[in-house]
Amino acid sequence: MPRSNGYAPLYWGVGATVVVADLATKTVAADRLLPAYLPRDVIGGAVRFTLVYNPGAAFGMHLGPQSRWIFSALAVGALVLLWQLFRSTRDGDWVRALALALVSGGAVGNLLDRLRSARGVVDFIDVGLGASRWPTFNLADMAVTCGAVLLALVLWREDAEPSPAEPIRGHDAPIQH
To answer: Which of 31, 141, 159, 172 is catalytic?
Structure first.
């Protein structure tokens, strides 16, 4: 595993930007969108700001009174795994580094919310049509989702590439008669 792949500025810069933007928008939402649970139209009814607190995880997944600590521990474990994936990123694979930075920054943003308040993660972006709504989310969730999709594509591409020890079959393969 390489000690440094040269993408530390990208990883830390993007990750820190996600955390700062997430915390700033959550602070504004918690201060300005009172009372909670009251939708405010931004783009008609399709995009609304609605302050909610999510004590669970994505899509309202809840594991009882210990959810806060269980999901915090899972986030720390995920951050360790993401760091290991970043450290193993090859030179030239800036897209993988970017994807890992997005997921890591989003995970840190939501982890900080869980640690700061028993109410849970601050969510406020509410999209949908009429009664058909996507679960309310925040910038950290957007970063995690975009980063995870990007990371899945990168890992799929890596899996599809032949390994250096594996010969490539093609026009240079011996002709059998």
So the answer is: 141
